[in-house]
Amino acid sequence: QGLLEKLTLSGSQRRSRFVDFTRHPAHQQITIMREGAQRLGVKDPFFRVHEGCAGATTRIDGRECINFASYNYLGLSGDPRVNQAAIEAVERYGTSVSASRMVAGERPIHQALESEIADTYGVDDAVAFVSGHATNVSSIGFLMGPKDLIVHDEYIHNSSVVGAQLAGSKRIAFKHNDMRSLADILEAQRPHFERVLIIVEGLYSMDGDFPDLPELVSLKNRYDAWLMVDEAHSFGVMGSTGMGLREHFGLPGHVVDIWMGTFSKTLAGCGGYIAGSQALIDMLKTLSPGFLYSVGLPAQVAAPVLASLQILRQEPERIVKLKLISDYFLDKAKSKGFDTGHSLGWAVVPILTGSSLKAGQLSVELFDRGINVQPILYPAVPEKSARLRFFLSSQHSYEQIDYTLNNLSKIWQ
Ligand code: PMP
């Protein structure tokens, strides 16, 4: 057969000639997980299709459910004003900026959004990336190198770990939120490295707890390290007006060297940002691969994020309501005897189930009763820390929470 004929084989012939990826260890791992779930009679709770906007409620399989699985913390995704901003942007700019920002992808909305973010932190400037995950991978990978040390909380998000791997730096995890553990590592390791970066999250999305920012700032100063805070879940959630961890502790923006956040949670969009000094932002905008060699944020994503930021400033009552709802959920869950781990009542409340099997089964049974909540299973967390993870929204009602926790109590046994 000639090369052309070989390349134009019919569908079934082509399929049989694919490399056998089922022999890849990652595929074997998936197979073991699926078979295990099937043997235990747990229906797959993942990749459920949401047929509309996912907020405090959502439509799945044609059925309206109470939803605790989305990061739409303030109900801004789906807000008519936010939708309108996207519509106007798409009508004006089309659906893609069609190039890297440096080349031909720059639009006025990019700078408007970045200066609004910089203002909220009270820092020099900010830069917006097309993905939150890529923001961490690219920024950490670009800023740090093989002679450096990255010390991070053991529960840090995968995107920061991958960024650290890309940097080729030595990477050490400190015990979750344990400042003594961090101090011990810094004390022992600091002299051996040129630069040291400490990475933490503003609010941990598995546990709903947060770090001691004043203590982190004092440690980073004492050991001459840089501090990076990932505010994916804390921005728009913590602080009396939603300005995040900084506002919660009443600290100025410049105490942290690298503020990072995502647009995909409270801000009702997609993408991520870094905010900080002018020199930091200039470097990232000019040279970091995930920004330079990637397309600019589409205008119809940047515009609703900017609109969400403005609504956040104008309607602080959303933050107040989110806190009330979170506290109500946490208190009620505790009073029913559930183990809510370290949650401090800011939008994220886990209920630990003791095993992946139980978490999976409870999720499926709750779904049958019109409640959508994701199980977090091993290996995402250690087996005994498997859990149902509840994301609260300012749009949830007290009745929805009563209904959910009463049903969970009934089916728990
Ligand atoms: N950081 C943290 C702490 C996250 O939880 C996530 C994703 N949930 C990301 C970064 C990546 O953000 P995105 O999903 O917007 O890419």
TrEMBL record:
Keywords: Acyltransferase, Transferase. Its cofactor is pyridoxal 5'-phosphate. It comes from the Bacteria. This is 8-amino-7-oxononanoate synthase. It is an enzyme of class 2 (transferase). One of its GO terms (molecular function) is pyridoxal phosphate binding. Residues 64-406 form the Aminotransferase class I/classII large domain. It comes from Nitrincola nitratireducens. Its EC number is 2.3.1.47. Coiled coil: none annotated. PANTHER family: CLASS II AMINOTRANSFERASE/8-AMINO-7-OXONONANOATE SYNTHASE, LD36009P. InterPro entries: Aminotransferase_I/II_large, AON_synthase_class-II, PyrdxlP-dep_Trfase, PyrdxlP-dep_Trfase_major, PyrdxlP-dep_Trfase_small. CDD domains: KBL_like.
